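Course assignment 3, question 2. Fill in each field.
Student: A.L.
Task: Predict the tertiary structure for the chain below.
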Amino acid sequence: MTELKLRLHLEGSPESIVRVTTNEFIIGRLPECDICLPFSEVSRHHSRLFKGSEDQWFVEDMGSTNGTIVNQNIISGAYKLQPDDAIQIGNAFLFVSLVDGEIGKSTLVRDRNTILRSAEELQKQWLNVDKTGPGEGNSQRAIARLRHLVEIAKDLSSAESIEAIFEKVQKVVFEEIKAIQRFALLVDVLEDGDLQLIEAASRRGPEPLETHTYDWIGRSICKRVFADKVAIKTVDAREDERFEGEHSILVKGIRGALAVPIWDRDRVVGVLYADASLKLKSSDAAEDEEDLSFFSTLANLVAYSVQRWLLTRKLQEEAKIRQQLERYHSPGVVQQLIAVGALENGRLEPKEAEISIIFADIVGFSDMSERMNPKQIARLLDRFFEEMLKSVFDRGGTLDKFIGDCIMAFFGAPEPQEDHADRAVMAALEMLQRLDRLNEAGIWKQPLQLHIGINSGKAVVGDVGSSQRVDYTVLGAAVNLASRLEMSCPPSECTISGATYQLLRQKEGFYLIGERNFKGINRRIPVYQTRRNKKQ
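Answer field:
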């Protein structure tokens, strides 16, 4: 005695199991029906399931407005049901399961729920497509698909964006494999094995890319395809133990799925994935193989375009990072950071480091600026900053920021520098000497003077800010003391803390001028200073 079970799938609702316990079973919009589907597209008495004389089950339409569809075909008369048939009534799907009541097992022996093939073997299969005998239906279909592949290869070569690439591919996919409902492109953007959803579409139009919409993609299937470089066509993923427990398969009602690797020169860069709420099972094994082979060959064509997009994206990101870093670091440091991959998402995460901080400020700039217009001030500062930063960058220093007419820079980060104190002091002395030469050359209408303060110690270094703006900067008490030293420094001199003095390998040229108190610091600080001005 054969028992009929139905899996009822409604869009947006978990799948449910319906057991047919009578020999006649009515489906329709009215509440008295055995299955009530209260939707406008469903007739009052839409379809009838009944058992025939030989213990066989049938479905027939009861004169409904929209008809009863089995396996995507509208039926006329009684249709004999087979295991795994899909009955569509309006937007509802009923998937058939026939069970022998005596032994409690399915009458269908599932020997081909999933086809799994090497992607490289499938590519060779397409190269031999012209060897199929003339007059065969499969040959005609294969030749038509081959024309599609030739055309899309031409289009892909001119596609400038990933959106354009995806648009051209999805059009062919939906046209050639009718059962496919949704289609997605996943790429290993960061080359860490974590596939990112780049574009997705359904037959109804583009799919949104918010995180929660990723649920419809069978992640277990994609991971297997990406890791093993295999192409997979699963007739009913829920019956396949490889994908047991897959949330998208169990909850979203995925029946069939196609997934193939995007690969080029032995490197897999992503996955093309498609699913179907109807089964993807054809009437013969050759058609199953051909669908998988076509989909896999399509992915192989896409591979070059995706590789090109990834390379362009990488170069653009690197240029953006380089441009950002060159605002703060010397060219040598920038090149080193990019080469060793020290950046995460283009940002340098804050961390504690031993550094030397330098503040260099123009003496009397406020009074000077009152006698100049804005353009004159801008020109003066542009030339001044450009000249002074040469001394910082030549010593491997990092610019923190410009504070009005003041330069704030540091040494010892992002790359550690054991001699950060020596570098800071040499840069400061060179700045003073460079300014002397510029003054002698009459670059400015009146000579400029600097006072410079340097301190060494621990500070937090890294990108700090909001989602709108991020600055690479240093924070901490060591920074505050360097600023205080600069403010107490005489014109054309350099003042350093005892901490910096102790770290210097060459201490010549600095003299102890005593211990001093500074605002916000509850201890006396030994202070050393140059004596370039002989009148001091």
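Instructor remarks: The chain has twelve helices and 27 strands. The chain has a mean pLDDT of 79.
Grade: pending
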